[in-house]
Amino acid sequence: MEPESKQPDAASSPAKRKRAEFEDDDIEVLVGTEQARFVVHKHIICERSTFFHSACSQRWMEEKRAIELVDDDPNTFNTYLKLVYGGGLRAIDPQKPFLEYIRLYSMADRFGDLDAANAAIDGIIQFSDQEHQVPNRGLVRLAMLSSSAHSPLQRLMIDFYVREISEVSIDNLEEDNVLPKEFLAAVVKEFVRIARAGNVANGLWKELSTCASEKPKCYYHQHNDRFPACEDATRPK
User: Fold this and answer.
1) Beta carbons of 85 and 1 less than 8 angstroms apart
2) pLDDT, tens digit, for every residue of 61-79?
3) What is the pLDDT of residues 101-148, one digit of tens each?
4) Strand 26-31's sheet: what is its strand order?
5) What CA–CA distance (Å, rounded) separates 142 from 183?
């Protein structure tokens, strides 16, 4: 895997060292309106992504046509590929991690790569816990509009506002023109659900005070037969 213009950090990964094995099985991916060019090992990315697996199964791939992702961001795709090739999330911009993680989750979710989507979720939670911050309203709006309904990312955003947002921010929600109405309705429903379930005062307080980083590691994850649940359910500190 490599953008045409620069060598990725994942160059030393085991998958990268197998380049000779898959040299004749590479695919070309053109990303964004400027069509940034990436060369990816078909075997590796199709094993991770249902989107690429389906795209590479189509008849037009036999003609060696490139896969075009016109609406995607090249930087986000580069981050995604580094994650796929074992490079972790070191490519995330430390100045705007929430934005980068949300974009990565949206892309991974559309690609059907649950491991990458789960990694993005973990990144959001870890940064929030370390820096004592939550995504601002603009980022919450992006998360809500760029992910499917009831997705783990949407549930995480709702939980941030229910359990970790400040009282001042809650007071201003009725005048908010940024957050989608569906999100505001979901926040209210979650408050109602907790209130109805909290018959004992201590139980209610425990529910409201349990932040995302204190929940089991897989709480906001997606898993299936291809992407089984984490062996260690304890979230790293």
Assistant:
1) yes
2) 566 678 999 999 999 999 9
3) 999 999 999 999 999 999 999 999 999 999 888 999 899 999 999 998
4) 2-3, 36-41, 26-31, 67-69
5) 11
